[in-house]
Amino acid sequence: MAATHRIAAGSVIAALCAASLAGCGTGTSRQETPAPRKAKPAQAPESAVRLIGDGSTAYTGAQPHLPRPERLRPGQKPPQFVVFSWDGAGEDSRKLFSHFRKVARANNATMTYFLSGVYLLPDDKRDRYRPPQHSPGRSDIGFNDRRGIAATVKQLRLAWLEGNEIGTHFNGHFCGSGGGVGEWSVQDWKDEIAQAKQFVKTWKTNTGMKNASPLPFDYDKELIGARTPCLEGQRNFLKAARELGFRYDTSGVNDQVWPKKKYGLWDVSMQLVPFPGHSYEQLTMDYNFMVSQSGTTTRGNPAMHRFWGDQMRYGLLKGFYRAYDGNRAPLIIGNHFESWNGGTYMRAVEEVIETVCTKKEVRCVSFRQLVDWLDAQDPTTLEKLRTLKVGEAPKQGWASFLAGRPAPAPKGVPGAPAAKQRPE
């Protein structure tokens, strides 16, 4: 499969290049492995299918398996949210997309898959991509073949039906100088986003797979958030995203604190967590752990593979417990479907999912579900939560800390009381 090598090779380029340093503590992490919960298999929505455009996508009703967000009651302790997300999501011969869908179902989790639009564009149609500041048909992560596109579409369809979110990682993944996304204008970003949507909405036309089943969502409405390549270009992207109706961005670097809005979008940035054995903290991303351990090579010393994976797992778990026992800030984790250093980071992520997602008061959710919950909360409650520092639990306890009665939610906002029915 040509797609196998293109997607796999592109993963390294698609990985984040940002490495942030800060002080961190070391020590061992607690480990628990609760029995996994069985999840119901994905089922198609019952409403009639309404095809969109060439039939690549379709409106099939409300997304299944999305919980209704509820406001915190006075004195109620916030749940511990954990978001597992995947950059450049695509299915190749390693079948990591389908594998982690299975892992999520077994552990009561949903996730966000950031699709690279060029993974739905066959190589022989590459000139249909006109990247900002680059010649037509250029992409730093390649394109796909028809078998790879069919496999990826299948996973996207099933993932959405299971309650997962389909975001975007844009298209050509250009980083650095010479036309990288950090140099793009607001209009460049709008053009890139429009093309990312277009490749999803026309994959049947571009592949000739006229009789294939459509993706079961309207991507213009489904797409509400993104992560920029290499965490670059955020300022102008935010301006474009705000005008296009996006609701969140996860392209920054932050500490483990409660989110706030930036340019009108929820800022759910990547985070810094303890890096065992080091005096600085590490970004919650597989690529950043790898670069700190083996440099830019993806085939480091095999004798170190298990140690490196364990180091990432312990770091993520230390970050989890710091929030779980502390300020309860959502933990944001980003990854790629990759096999770097013998697949040790995929093992580490899977073990973290199995450890944390079935714990009491933990919700492993997509970014969409997280921002739905944030929008449902009383703003004064979120302001209080944001006063808590990294790992800081309320000294007086949660019941006293959030004892104030929240203001009623405005009509139409998730969590608002149902409207009273007028008597007949």
Keywords for this structure?
about 425 residues, alpha/beta, TIM Barrel, five-stranded parallel beta sheet, four-stranded mixed beta sheet, 13 helices, disordered N terminus, Polysaccharide deacetylase, CE4, signal
Plain-language structure description:
This is Polysaccharide deacetylase. The protein is an alpha/beta fold. It has a single domain, classed as TIM Barrel. 33% of the residues lie in helices and 12% in strands. The protein is built from 13 helices and 14 strands. Strands 3, 4, 5, 13 and 14 form a five-stranded parallel sheet that branches. Helix 4 crosses helix 7 and helix 9 packs parallel to helix 10. The N terminus and C terminus are likely disordered.
- CATH fold name: TIM Barrel
What number of domains?
A: 1
From the helix content, strand content and strand pairing, which structural class follows?
alpha/beta
Low-confidence stretches: 1-39, 416-424
Beta-strand content estimate? 5-15%
Say which CATH homologous superfamily is assigned: Glycoside hydrolase/deacetylase
**How many extended strands?**
14
Shape: globular
Oligomer: single chain
How are helices and strands ordered from N to C?
A: HEEEHEHEHHHEHEEEEEEHHEHEHHH
Instruction: Using the coordinates above, name the CATH class.
Output: Alpha Beta
CATH architecture: Alpha-Beta Barrel
From the N-terminal CA to the C-terminal CA, the straight-line distance is 65 Å
Give the overall pLDDT as a whole number.
89
What is the share of helical residues? 25-40%
Biggest β-sheet description: 5 strands, parallel
Give the helix tally: 13
